[in-house]
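Thread: Newbie trying to understand structure tokens

Hi all, I'm a second-year student working on a class project, and my supervisor (Dr. K.) asked me to get a predicted structure for one chain before our next meeting. I've only ever worked with sequences, so writing a 3D structure as a token string is new to me. If someone could post the tokens and maybe explain what I'm looking at, I'd be very grateful. Here's the chain:
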Amino acid sequence: MAQPESLSDLLNGRRAAVDASWPAVGFLAGWLAFHTIGAGIAGALLAALGVVAWRLRRGDKPRAVLIGLLGVCVAALIALRTGKAEDFFLLQILTNGASVLVWTISIVIRWPLLGVVVGAVLGQRTRWRRDPELLRAYSRASWIWVLQYVIRVAVFLPLYAAGEPGALAVARIVLSWPLVAACLAASWWVIRRTLPAEHPGLRHPVLQK
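---
Reply by user tm_fold:
Sure, no problem. This is what the structure looks like when written as tokens:
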């Protein structure tokens, strides 16, 4: 398979995961310093705003970072509403749980989300689905992403039930860019192992007539 680009190159996933981890760092710093919901949320919001400012200054597209900021704001509102610091991470738990279900369904119905995402990035729309080898590769690699979300839920839920916001923040940091980096590398390895050696690569689906 003549494909020099990796999934990390195509999806820029590690940078997004690093950006997503900073609000958890800010929350942890505020929580450890004052042990109050307000301090944790203030730290998270300051970190999120810092990421937005940094990315906009570098000329990056604002949509992704603004969506991240919106997520932090919603999480903050939930925690302020309930009065429980651990609820700052409730949205994260719910989205990861939903991701397990959605990614699994996508594989079962033969619309693996990894293929959908990569196909959109490469401007292929749905042409990749007409390549049986690519469809098989994306389906197998998508299970790695399912596992990623399962790991997060399995770690987050007990900490949430125990009411440990500090530990949740640490877990959020650890399971951000390191786990995403491992997921990208593992799913790329699965794709390369699944596609035949003569396949031209992700950018060039072999369309079945």
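A couple of things are worth pointing out once you decode it. The two ends are 21 Å apart (CA to CA). The chain has a mean pLDDT of 92. Feel free to ask follow-ups in this thread.
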